[in-house]
UniProtKB/TrEMBL annotation:
Domain of life: Bacteria
Sequence similarity: Belongs to the transcriptional regulatory Rex family.
Coiled coil: none
Domain CoA-binding: 81-182
Broad class of the protein's primary localization: cytoplasm
Name listed for the protein in its UniProt record: Redox-sensing transcriptional repressor Rex
Keywords: Cytoplasm, DNA-binding, NAD, Repressor, Transcription, Transcription regulation
Binding site for NAD(+): 92-97
């Protein structure tokens, strides 16, 4: 990973994949150019914000013409390092791990689950899609062999910190955690948590009381 992200705020980085998703939709609709106004309408975002976000990476829109969709696609992928294959280590070949391994959309986005690990002897050696579940102890070996750069934690909360530490020790610095646990990470490691339960709990607030 380059040091380019250090200059760009995390909130801008979070919006870039949203722009990229819109760009994919536009490509499917054979739309060749789009203005920041139209992007804002489609994404429910302020067009000035979009222009400012994109301008952080240089001038690539033209006044009165808008953004060239193909160029935007190329540029966003370049910024997000999605112009190359990113190999992912998935830890935990349980219900969620298997579902994630079979989720084809990652593949098309150049993010590929290249190795699946577990520590349960019953699971090690089993097939998950086209992959064979490996022993979690062998993570450092696989990390080198397959250039694993990203980790996904799909183990129970009780094992999540230990797995996180193993990923970090193996040299993986970018981690997505699905376990409902607050993980400690050293400086230089980037962690994102996704917790379906807390999302649902927050949504439950909006239910009307009967
Ligand atoms: N299943 C879901 O729909 C879902 C949704 C959101 C979040 N989650 C969270 O994702 C995590 C996994 O959920 P699940 O339903 O797949 O659980 P699961 O019990 O089906 O699978 C967990 C797997 O992790 C493995 N494991 C445990 N400790 C390990 C370790 N130290 N190293 C390597 N592997 C280890 C187990 O052997 C098992 O195969 C949980 O934290 C859960 O809360 C699950």
């Amino acid at each position: 990973m380059g040091n380019k992200e250090l200059r760009i705020s995390p909130s801008v980085i979070r919006r870039l994949p949203v722009y990229l998703r819109l760009v994919q939709e536009l490509k499917e609709l054979s739309i060749a150019t789009i203005s920041s106004q139209e992007m804002g309408d489609r994404l429910d975002l302020n067009p000035a914000q979009i222009r400012k976000d994109l301008a952080s990476f240089g001038e690539f829109g033209r006044k009165g013409v808008g953004y060239n969709v193909a160029y935007l696609d190329w540029k966003l992928r370049q910024i997000l390092n999605l112009d190359r294959q990113i190999n992912v280590a998935l830890i935990g070949a349980g219900h969620l791990g298997i579902a994630l391994s079979n989720y084809a959309r990652f593949q098309s986005e150049r993010i590929k689950i290249t190795a699946v690990f577990d520590r349960d002897p019953q699971k090690i050696g089993q097939k998950v899609g086209s992959l064979t579940v490996a022993d979690a102890q062998d993570l450092p070996l696989y990390r080198q062999k397959y250039n694993l750069q990203m980790g996904i934690i799909a183990v129970p909360a009780s094992a999540a910190q230990e797995v996180c530490d193993e990923l970090v020790a193996a040299g993986i610095k970018v981690i997505l955690n699905f376990a409902p646990a607050n993980l400690r990470i050293p400086k230089g490691v980037h962690l994102r948590n996704t917790d379906v339960t807390t999302e649902l709990q927050a949504l439950a607030y909006y239910l009307e009381n009967e």
